């Protein structure tokens, strides 16, 4: 999924094949090579959106049986390194999603094909037709998340907490309109899971101040 508004980082250094990949619901005992993020760096804030109804499907998703986020051990350590750099600048990571079961990815695809369900259009894909979500690559049939090597994340100022979402209407530079879902994290111009040009990392339709915030995370 293209979720650049909160800077989806693919950790290429750990994009390797593991002997025991996680492909289904969260197990009670993790396979070798996988860890809970909190066990590597408890300072990283976790806010698993797919365990709630605050996501583009509008309900808790298949496969998410708990709130603790999982990554490969190498990925979690790399994420912790990013966290330590950000803390020097007065920020903390907020992670929305990490390991994602294949059954969740399959649910994404089913949702995308169900064009009759438009219940979340205003918040998550206001400027495109649902029919092109798959074609445009916002949703794919496979995901790096299912290897435990990808995270969806953003930042928040140190000392602040993620809050209940409030919605606000935002007019972009090209005149298009999106709903910004404010959860107290840094404002990078668009919000998590927005299927829109505004979510592309170097989007030309958002203000410069938002691009600067996105680049801060990319460079960490």
Secondary-structure map:
Layout (H helix, E strand, L loop, with lengths): L8 E2 L23 E3 H4 L4 E2 L23 E3 H16 L2 E7 L4 H12 L7 H4 L25 E8 L8 E6 L5 E6 L25 H11 L2
Parallel strand pairs: 3-5
Antiparallel strand pairs: 1-6, 2-4, 5-6, 7-8
Descriptive tags:
220 residues, four-stranded mixed β-sheet, D-alanyl-D-alanine dipeptidase
Brief summary of the model shown:
The chain has helices at 37-40, 73-88, 102-113, 121-124, 208-218, and strands at 9-10, 34-36, 45-46, 70-72, 91-97, 150-157, 166-171, 177-182. By secondary structure, the chain is of the alpha+beta class.
Explain what this protein looks like in three dimensions.
With about 220 residues, the protein is an alpha+beta fold. About 20% of the residues lie in helices and about 15% in strands. The protein contains 5 helices and 8 strands, in the order E-E-H-E-E-H-E-H-H-E-E-E-H. The longest helix is centred in the middle third of the chain and has 16 residues.
Trace the largest sheet across and list its strands: 1-6-5-3
Largest sheet: 4 strands, mixed
Shape: globular
How many DSSP-defined strands? Answer: 8
Number of helices: 5
Whole-Å distance between the termini? 22 Å
Strand percentage lies at 15-25%
Order of helices and strands: EEHEEHEHHEEEH
How helix-rich are the residues, as a percent range? 10-25%
Estimated radius of gyration? 17 Å
| Mean pLDDT across all amino acids | 87
Structural class comes to alpha+beta
User: Which spans have pLDDT < 50 for at least 5 consecutive residues?
Assistant: 1-21
InterPro entries: A_A_dipeptidase, Zn_M74/Hedgehog-like
GO molecular function, one term: metal ion binding
Organism: Bemisia tabaci (Sweetpotato whitefly)
Protein name: D-alanyl-D-alanine dipeptidase
């Amino acid at each position: 999924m293209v979720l650049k508004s909160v800077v989806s980082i693919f950790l290429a250094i750990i994009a390797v094949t593991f002997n025991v990949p996680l492909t289904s619901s969260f197990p009670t005992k993790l396979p070798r090579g996988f860890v809970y993020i909190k066990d590597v760096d408890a300072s990283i804030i976790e806010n698993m959106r797919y365990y709630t109804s605050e996501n583009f499907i509008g309900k808790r998703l298949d496969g998410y049986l708990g709130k603790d986020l999982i990554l490969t051990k190498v990925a979690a350590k790399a994420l912790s390194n990013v966290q330590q750099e950000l803390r020097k600048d007065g920020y903390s990571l907020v992670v929305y999603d990490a390991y994602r079961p294949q059954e969740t990815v399959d649910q994404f695809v089913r949702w995308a094909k169900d064009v009759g369900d438009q219940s979340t259009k205003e918040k998550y894909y206001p400027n495109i037709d649902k029919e092109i979500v798959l074609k445009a690559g916002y949703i794919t049939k496979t995901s790096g998340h299912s290897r435990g090597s990808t995270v969806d994340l953003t930042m928040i100022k140190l000392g602040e907490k993620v809050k209940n979402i409030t919605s606000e209407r935002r007019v972009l530079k090209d005149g298009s309109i999106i709903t910004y879902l404010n959860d107290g994290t840094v404002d990078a111009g668009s919000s998590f899971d927005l299927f829109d040009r505004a979510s592309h990392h170097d989007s030309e339709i958002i203000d410069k101040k938002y691009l600067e915030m996105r680049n801060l995370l990319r460079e960490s």
